[in-house]
Each structure stands twice: as structure tokens, then as C-alpha cells.
Amino acid sequence: RCQVRGVISQFDGSACLLGDTGYGIAPWLITPFKPPQNAQQRNFNLHHARERVVVERVFGQFKKRFPVFGNCMRVSLDRVPKTIICCAVLHNVGKHLNDVYGVEEDVEENALEGDEQVEYQVENAQKKLRGEEKRRQMMYTLGGM
Fold it and tell me: CA separation (Å) from 30 to 26, 96, 126?
């Protein structure tokens, strides 16, 4: 977990991950407003939730098509990224060839409301403040759309 956090925290600011409300906000991990205080924040949360649903759906498809994602991957940590990329390429080739094995549409009913509660705290208050500022900037960008 610490290795992953170290890699992710090196993002240059142009990329970020979307997390649910169980995670602490950081410049590289954007979470919804909890609770939203105004229409702009509700709009941001709606966009955030829609994007997370897309990601969760892809994760579900990967787990169905490639059982290795449903359990602990039994490969060394340095091979995990290559394994994921290979599976993503095979998944996309399968979609291109209309091979729908294991990718039936299944919508997670509670994806927009019941976020998983994950024990995660950001140790550094500065990270939290920078993450909140980035989220505000993203919210204002969405407001101009």
C-alpha cells in the first residue's frame, strides 16, 4: 500500500484518481463533496459519480473476463502493471471482435449513493488542502460547461 501511495503521489498534478467518500482527499485523489453545500458541489458530485460508475463497470467486466482480478494476483508486484495492461489489451480486442464473454452490462445499483467505506486517512494536512483546491478548480471548470 505504501509503495502504491508513493508512486501515485508523484503525479505531476495533471492526473488524478477518483475516490469515494471513504478516502481522504489529496491532490492526486479527488473525492466528492461531503455533504454538498450548493448546486455547484452537487453538480460536481454527480459528474464524479458518473465517472466512477464507468470505472466500476469496467472493473466488473475485467473480473468476469479475467478471474485473476477477482482474487489476489499471484504474480510479483513488478509484473502486476504488465498483467493489467495485457488484460486490458485483450479485453479491447475482444470488444472489437464482438466477443462479449463475461462483459454483460450489469449496473451496480448503489454506485451513485452507497460508497464503500474504506479506512484511509491523509497524514498530511497540506495534501488535503491542495486536494480540496484542485477539486474546487475542477468544480468551477464543470460549472462553465
Answer: 6, 32, 14
